Task: inverse folding
């Protein structure tokens, strides 16, 4: 039957009925990834607020510190002279002065210090185990230089800082070792390339060796952040072997209570799960999912955001992976997050929901049982636009994978009215997804033989007017989708006129088929 | 931004351009529009006129015209919201806004490129200073690294380690910023708390015509009507009205002076504007004295005509004036000339005796030729009645055009039909006021009075229109204040609701400030309505340019009111 072919073709083209939920999810993932990447790039430009080092304060830790007043405001020239001198004391003073300049808030002279040729000196200071103060000052200065742009980081690495810092990790002086952790974090955070350079140099065992029961919290915070940077970035992902090395420690960190540690550890997990199903599997197999679900209800936004992101990533995986998350009770945690005061959290929560709704009807049934439809409809109506967009996806996924009864239930919860109200948005992509949802609902009605009733309902809710309006939408695909809906479910003999008007070849080609459907 | 030289920065910019005129539905806006149209005709500037009744309308009108037009003139709409946020225009669209709505949204005030406010700055605007409400983001983020990124966003890939001192400075700065933000909220709250109105749009455009020496008597008359509209619909304080009347009077004498030497050449269709110290009796020159007294708010409230006693007092009053009842009840036009001659003095004398000290009011009248004489206030009533006509099922834009027509002296027939409608409307208002008072429909809800017109009340359709309902509201509150003995209630504001759209099951809700001689006419209901709707998630439509007029789903009425009571108590 030609009708069927056309319908099917159409379905698999921009709808999930032709199904293959994995494909559907993939599509969503790439889209999200793109968004997230853009977001990340933005973030790179900014710099994060300082987390205080665990070091209580500098004076206490380096008793042989020179008094602040003595070193303040030395010029670069003076610093060069001091650093290049032969006296340890002068070197220390120069190094500290440089560090001070690099630690001021406004316009730290990263490039000036590099151009002054001081980096090789600084790196050489790192290995002077008998001069801890000098070591520390150099490590701090290099840390700050590495915190700049990629070019700045590159200068640090090319002066041989990586092996020096890795050996420094083993320093008996805690504050020096911690500074090395921080510097390595900055290098790893630069991108995949340096991240893998560090991994090649065996940074991971050296880092993990520092985790022990009496490691101070501040140190652990820095260390967790550095680990998260080692999990971060794609194209390529970090090597699987490295991930497997880090995971047990990350899991261990996830069971601590410090919010900063939890936050960075969760971010690390979110990076690891932001990939294909095999990558997700590695994480799920550790059994950490229940803890992640638990952290979704954490009081701190900084913790629940990455926990939610990780869970969202996992439910974009296979049905089995999604089921693990459902079994861990995610459906009880989501409603609260969907009403969270911060819109970005709502959006992520609904995004996760939309991916669960893309699952088999058994999982859809669990959505219904756990009462997620009312909050979903509520977000559809009252969420900010990004949240609404995810909610629309959720409805479309739901209607394409759900049973007829499930779809009817969704309509009864008010989703149809909400969808129709959204038909006035401008975004063409969203419009297409909306029209898909409406089409899906009609197909469910068709199975019940209640198409006419639904047409009437849609018209009463003002949907017909809006769909008719969309026929004059700039976007060709939107126009076609709207047109087909009208023709199929609201048409009455207007068809001939329409055929004449249509200039698009594909459309003229298709319309006779649709006519036949209609006459059935 | 505010425009200081309206001629250079507005008129000369749009000359030789095509302009879209988006005009709100009120008489001042119509008059402003007439003046601008006359100027545009004179200089052959092409324009398209689009009447807009609310925000949605405005949005649609903009969408429909944004391709063809770069310049938009908004009359009596657009100033009190962040317009760019709402319309999302391209960077090259420019909006000239001449709007009486206050407070002006601060973003509109401080946008220098796309928003040009044709608003007199000597109006008491009280706009917060820029530094108090805006901060250059760069100052926050650019200069110092380690920007305080939002909690909950992804951590940065790299971090610099700061001085200990820097940390303290940062904390100090954050504290300062939080304080600044708290202060900003407070300032904005104070600024946006009340809604009120500024100088008439018609007067603003008249002034433009005047500085270009292109002002005509017609324009002057429209400016007067615009100002009078603000007085009739109780939008400005007495003080402001008197001041602006004085301004207009100077223009009137200038124009009259100009014609003095041509006295003999006055033709039959000429136009004369004169300052009058006339009676506060609505439409009396087009009605009978008796009907006008019965249906004018001032006299009707004073006598309490809805009571038997009041009717008696009215008879006594008429007797006191010594006017034969027959004369009083017949058409004003047909009254004896001898009576008409010093009618105003006679009425004033008796009124003073009866405690109506303000029966006279400064206003203007116009003569078209020898036969037709109109008072500014009566013109306002006639045009409003046309604008909100419910006679036939005509569209808003039909009514708009009719009302606009009635303002031209070439279209006296239209004006007379408006006068007839206005009479019907005034009678309906008086009857509704009487029945509301007599059946105790006004309930004290604690922080405000509340009155709901049920479906099926006579003339209820008339009161689904915002201006008519507002007028009813004002008359009713005046009447209530006169009739109640409860001193506390006299000081309360009033909220009225009337059926709007039976099919959709909505009501229109209007809130007005308390009635008093010295009232500053500032209305706080706009904010309150928004808050109450938000907290109860009532289904409301805040579409009207006056934020104190909203639409509400019938079923949500009680929870909305409850929230309002809690909010205002």
Result:
């Amino acid at each position: 039957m030609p009708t069927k072919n056309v319908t099917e073709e159409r379905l698999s083209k921009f709808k999930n009925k032709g199904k293959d939920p994995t494909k559907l999810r993939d599509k969503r993932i790439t889209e999200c990834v793109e968004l997230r990447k853009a977001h990340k790039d933005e973030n790179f430009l900014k710099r994060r607020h300082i987390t205080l080092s665990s070091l209580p304060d500098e004076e206490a830790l380096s008793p042989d510190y020179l008094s602040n007043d003595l070193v303040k405001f030395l010029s670069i020239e003076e610093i060069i002279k001091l650093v290049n001198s032969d006296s340890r004391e002068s070197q220390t003073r120069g190094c500290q002065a440089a560090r001070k300049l690099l630690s001021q808030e406004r316009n730290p002279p990263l490039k000036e210090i590099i151009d002054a040729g001081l980096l090789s000196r600084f790196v050489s200071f790192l290995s002077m185990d008998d001069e801890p103060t000098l070591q520390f000052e150099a490590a701090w200065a290099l840390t700050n230089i590495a915190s700049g742009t990629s070019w700045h980081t590159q200068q640090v690495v090319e002066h041989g800082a990586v092996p020096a810092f890795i050996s420094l990790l083993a320093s008996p002086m805690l504050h020096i070792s911690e500074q090395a952790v921080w510097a390595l974090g900055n290098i790893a955070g630069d991108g995949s390339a340096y991240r893998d350079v560090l991994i090649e140099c065996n940074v991971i065992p050296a880092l993990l060796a520092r985790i022990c029961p009496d490691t101070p919290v501040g140190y652990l915070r820095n260390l967790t952040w550095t680990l998260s940077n080692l999990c971060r970035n794609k194209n390529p992902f970090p090597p699987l072997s490295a991930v497997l090395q880090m995971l047990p420690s990350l899991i261990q960190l996830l069971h601590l209570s410090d919010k900063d540690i939890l936050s960075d550890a969760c971010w690390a997990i979110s990076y690891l799960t932001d990939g294909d199903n095999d990558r997700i599997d590695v994480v799920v197999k550790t059994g950490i999912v229940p803890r992640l679900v638990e952290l979704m209800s954490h009081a701190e936004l900084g913790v629940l955001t990455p926990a939610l992101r990780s869970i969202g990533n996992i439910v974009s995986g296979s049905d089995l992976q999604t089921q693990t998350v459902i079994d861990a009770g995610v459906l009880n945690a989501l409603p609260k997050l969907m009403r969270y005061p911060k819109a970005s959290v709502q959006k992520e929560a609904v995004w996760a929901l939309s991916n669960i709704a893309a699952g088999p009807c058994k999982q859809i049934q669990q959505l219904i049982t756990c009462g997620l439809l009312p909050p979903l409809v509520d977000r559809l109506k009252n969420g900010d636009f990004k949240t609404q967009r995810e909610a629309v996806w959720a409805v479309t996924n739901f209607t394409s994978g759900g049973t007829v009864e499930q779809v009817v239930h969704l309509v009864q919860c008010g989703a149809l009215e909400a969808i129709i109200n959204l038909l006035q948005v401008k975004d063409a992509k969203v419009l297409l997804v909306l029209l898909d949802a409406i089409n899906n609902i009609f197909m469910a009605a068709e199975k019940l033989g209640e198409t006419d009733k639904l047409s009437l309902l849609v018209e009463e809710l003002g949907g017909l007017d809006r769909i008719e309006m969309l026929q004059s939408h700039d976007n060709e695909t939107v126009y076609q989708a709207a047109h087909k809906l009208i023709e199929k479910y609201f048409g009455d003999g207007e068809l001939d006129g329409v055929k004449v008007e249509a200039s698009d070849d594909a459309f003229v080609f298709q319309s006779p088929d649709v006519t036949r459907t209609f006459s059935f | 931004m505010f425009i200081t030289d309206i001629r250079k920065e507005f008129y000369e910019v749009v000359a030789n351009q095509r302009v879209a005129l988006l005009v709100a539905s009120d008489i001042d806006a119509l008059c402003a529009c007439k003046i601008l149209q006359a100027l545009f005709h004179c200089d052959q500037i092409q324009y398209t006129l689009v009447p807009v009744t609310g925000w949605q309308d405005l949005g649609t009108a903009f969408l429909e015209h944004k391709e063809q037009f770069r310049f938009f003139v908004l009359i009596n709409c657009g100033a009190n919201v962040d317009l760019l946020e709402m319309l999302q225009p391209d960077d090259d669209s420019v909006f000239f806004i001449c709007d009486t709505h206050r407070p002006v949204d601060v973003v509109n005030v401080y946008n220098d490129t796309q928003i040009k406010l044709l608003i007199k700055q000597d109006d008491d605007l009280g706009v917060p200073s820029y530094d108090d409400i805006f901060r250059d983001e760069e100052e926050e983020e650019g200069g110092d690294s380690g920007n305080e990124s939002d909690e909950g966003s992804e951590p940065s890939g790299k971090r610099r380690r700061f001085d200990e001192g820097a940390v303290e400075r940062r904390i100090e700065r954050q504290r300062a910023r939080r304080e600044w933000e708290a202060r900003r909220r407070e300032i904005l709250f104070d600024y946006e708390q009340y809604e009120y109105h500024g100088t008439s749009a018609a007067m603003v455009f008249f002034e433009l015509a005047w500085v270009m020496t292109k002002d005509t008597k017609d324009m002057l008359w429209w400016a007067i009507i615009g100002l009078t509209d603000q007085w009739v619909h109780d939008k400005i304080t007495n003080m402001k009205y008197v001041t602006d009347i004085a301004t207009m009077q100077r223009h009137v004498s200038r124009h009259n002076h100009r014609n003095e030497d041509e006295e003999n050449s006055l033709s039959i269709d000429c136009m004369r504007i004169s300052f009058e110290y006339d009676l506060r009796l609505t439409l009396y020159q087009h009605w009978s004295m008796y009907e006008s007294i019965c249906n004018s708010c001032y006299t009707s409230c004073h006598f309490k005509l809805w009571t038997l006693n009041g009717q008696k007092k009215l008879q006594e009053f008429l007797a006191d004036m010594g006017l034969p009842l027959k004369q009083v009840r017949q058409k004003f036009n047909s009254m004896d000339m001898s009576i008409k001659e010093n009618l105003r003095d006679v009425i004033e004398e008796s009124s003073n005796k009866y405690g109506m000290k303000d029966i006279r009011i400064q206003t203007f009248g116009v003569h078209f030729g020898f036969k037709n004489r109109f008072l500014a206030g009566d013109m306002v009533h006639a045009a409003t009645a046309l604008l909100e006509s419910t006679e036939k099922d005509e569209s808003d834009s039909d009514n708009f055009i009719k009302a606009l027509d009635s303002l031209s002296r070439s279209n006296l027939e239209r004006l007379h039909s408006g006068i007839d409608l206005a009479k019907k409307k005034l009678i309906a208002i008086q009857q509704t006021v009487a029945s509301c008072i007599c059946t105790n429909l006004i309930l004290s809800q604690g922080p405000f009075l509340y009155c709901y017109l049920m479906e099926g009340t006579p003339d209820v359709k008339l009161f689904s229109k915002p201006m008519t309902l507002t007028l009813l509201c004002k008359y009713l509150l005046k009447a209530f204040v006169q009739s109640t003995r409860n001193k506390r209630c006299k000081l309360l504001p009033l909220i009225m609701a009337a059926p709007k759209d039976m099919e959709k099951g909505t009501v229109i809700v209007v809130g007005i400030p308390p009635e008093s001689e010295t009232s500053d006419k500032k209305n706080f209901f706009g904010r309150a309505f928004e808050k109450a709707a938000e907290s109860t998630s009532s289904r409301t439509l805040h579409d009207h340019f006056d934020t104190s007029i909203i639409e509400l789903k019938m079923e949500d009425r009680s929870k909305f009111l409850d929230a309002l009571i809690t909010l205002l108590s």
